[in-house]
Amino acid sequence: MWRRGGVVREIVFVELIDVLRCTRPHEESWLVAVPTRMEGRHIAEGVLGCPVCQAEYPVRRGIVDFTGGVAPSASPASAVPADAEATDAMRLAALLDLTDEKGWVLLTGRWTQLVDEMQSIVENELLVVNPPSDREGGNGVSVIRVGDVLPIAPGLARAAAIDVGTGFDASAAAAVVRSGGRVIGPSELAIPAGVRELARDDEGWVGEREGNVSAPVLLRVRGRAE
């Protein structure tokens, strides 16, 4: 339950809301939703609230706003042509290894311009960060607008397409991918820590998210008593 304005409201989790996190520095906690208008499985209007610090993030036109009123960095418009064809999305889907509908995918920067084409060829839920201003959420696409903090829990995404010039740390974007998941980026972006390079060409690179390696455990063999 989440208390807002003295009224206790039921927690409503829809699609990818349970992977979103508060941008304020405190212990990690999921956000809870109070929708005022639904469209299928998507919240069209409402608010997400933090049960720890009581911060609120509005949802308008299916878009969750984490910016606090500060304009986010725009996606690099010149990197992908506005009339990008399905072949661009097909290549993206192949690089991210989206062979089935399991798991959601993070798109940032230039890759957000391929959302329509991606919808036509993959069944994965798409979580899109700071897309062009005319993009709304719904129909398998969840949209968030952020500042310099990426409010997404780590290790949960199937794959991610990251970029330069997004305003937030590329390493944070790569960290949302689960162990063994694909991460891609442009050639001018250094491969983030925790990502192992698989392939590279003049346009970009493909990597795989590495798992956390635990500290070695010292094994002792107990000798038998004589």
Explain this structure.
With 226 residues, the chain is mainly β. It folds into two domains: 2-64, no CATH class; 86-209, 3-Layer(aba) Sandwich (Rossmann fold), CATH 3.40.50.150. Helix content is 10%, strand content 31%. It is built from three helices and 13 strands, in the order ββββββαβαβββαβββ. The chain has helices at 86-95, 115-121, 170-175; strands spanning 2-4, 7-9, 32-39, 42-49, 56-60, 63-65, 105-107, 126-129, 141-145, 157-161, 177-186, 195-200, 204-209. Helix 1 packs across helix 2.
Q: Any chance you could write out the topology, listing elements then pairs?
A:
Blueprint: E1 2-4, E2 7-9, E3 32-39, E4 42-49, E5 56-60, E6 63-65, H1 86-95, E7 105-107, H2 115-121, E8 126-129, E9 141-145, E10 157-161, H3 170-175, E11 177-186, E12 195-200, E13 204-209
Parallel strand pairs: 6-9, 7-8, 7-10, 8-9, 10-11
Antiparallel strand pairs: 1-2, 3-4, 4-5, 5-6, 11-13, 12-13
Helix pairs in contact: 1-2
